Amino acid sequence: MTAKRIVACLDVRARRVVKGRQFQAIRDAGDPAEYAARYCAGGIDELVLLDISATLEDRAACWATVRDVGRAVNVPLTAGGGVRSLQDIDALLNAGADKVAINSAAVEKPELLSQAANRFGSQCVVLSVDVRRSGAGTYVATRSGVADTAIPAAEWIVRAQELGAGEVLLTSIDRDGTSGGFDLPLIREISNVTRLPVIASGGAAGADSFADALLCGADAALGASVFHYGAMTPAQVKNVCAARGLQVRQ
Known about the structure:
8-stranded parallel beta barrel, alpha/beta
């Protein structure tokens, strides 16, 4: 059995960590490299760094922030935000990222996933999917949650898998920043339709919420605010997950 992963997310704007609720009410939280170093010392398995305003500002992610965080950590680093081309991916990998998350551009030009997988390998290509519930369905949203689509989340992830994506970062917009627990039906739905590793994101609460997401089929569970503000450490989350029968990295 592959060990489950606990992941910390650094949403960044203007080279500062920020956090909001349902992609709104963004507030400053601190220096990215300092947070990254603290999480590594606390036992985090991986880090995700997302430049959340890059797409809306029509620019590439700040590679200098990726470089600074990469120098501060000794765990795999995924970087994303504003990725629109192979050149953008190459720049983030050269800055120190191990994997690159692609969101809006993948929806707008799906061939970018195949091109990226062919050039860099699927292991470097993370499909970032922001999902919003509407009625009985779950649909993809792009451009930092500003633009809704009629694309069912499960269908898009299956297609992205065929195009060469190597992993899925699945974020529930409805749960983002609420500390109300992960969207377990969404995690279960997506885990059942794809063979790709799924990172569950959006709604992390207590340590048990991470275990709930992992038991529903996620390969990794991601937290932001719960780690930023000291509610718990990655090691504490792992202890609870292990107590509930999950294999985690120690």
